[in-house]
Design goal:
The chain is built from three helices and nine strands; from the N terminus they run H-H-E-E-E-E-E-E-E-H-E-E. It is mostly beta strands. The longest helix is centred in the first third of the chain and has 9 residues. It folds into two domains: about 30 residues, no CATH class; about 160 residues, no CATH class.
């Protein structure tokens, strides 16, 4: 699986409730800053770790080797995502953790099976089904807690017309309109790949 960062619109501004947490008392030296119940709850929401799960079928899996039996960029109905060599049925376990002020780490642990129609190393025609496992993380800039319940919208087929509901789509469900500002590392492992002793890996 070759990874691309998909830009996700513009950043979301800080909510009014969070701005209220920062208010002091003008003209009074040493005045205490207090939080009301709503502000305290918001602060707690921005400090905890969230978990969710997405199950998808037909996820396009890409390689760096084009031509041959792969579905190449110039003929790929999904756009320039890379040469596709297999389609995966996977469960994505999603963990979202605070990564500093206004930032979150979105960590994917993915398990499932691939159905290959091309060898990812040579692009030669090859039909096989095997197991796959992968991990990848992204850094997202947002002053809001993730919308974990929205992950349910990504369940089912990973392809909707010409749109692939991949990592960028899922991150935008969690943080609508928020930018991805970093990613990696990633590591994906596949069994039963031709001419590869043990487990075939894609890492970066």
């Amino acid at each position: 699986m070759r990874i691309r960062i998909i830009p996700v619109l513009a950043a979301v501004g800080a909510p009014a409730a969070l701005a209220g947490v920062l208010l002091g008392t003008a003209g009074q030296a040493g005045a205490a800053v207090t939080q009301g119940p709503a502000a305290a709850a918001l602060t707690a929401n921005l400090q905890q770790t969230y978990t969710g799960k997405v199950s998808q079928t037909g996820v396009p899996d890409t390689t760096s080797v084009g031509g041959g039996a792969t579905v190449n960029n110039d003929s790929n109905q999904f756009g320039p995502i890379g040469p596709v060599w297999a389609y995966d049925n996977i469960t994505r376990n999603v963990q979202v953790s605070p990564a500093g002020p206004g930032q979150w780490t979105v960590y994917f642990v993915e398990n499932g099976t691939y159905s290959a129609f091309a060898d990812p190393n040579t692009a030669a025609s090859w039909i096989n089904t095997g197991n796959m496992h992968g991990t990848i993380s992204y850094t997202v800039q947002s002053d809001n807690a993730p919308k974990i319940a929205a992950l349910a919208q990504a369940n089912g087929s990973a392809v909707d017309g010409t749109t692939v509901h991949g990592h960028g789509y899922i991150i935008n469900l969690l943080f609508p309109g928020a930018p991805v500002v970093g990613y990696g590392p990633y590591s994906y492992h596949y069994t039963q790949i031709p001419d590869v002793p043990g487990v075939y890996q894609q890492v970066g």
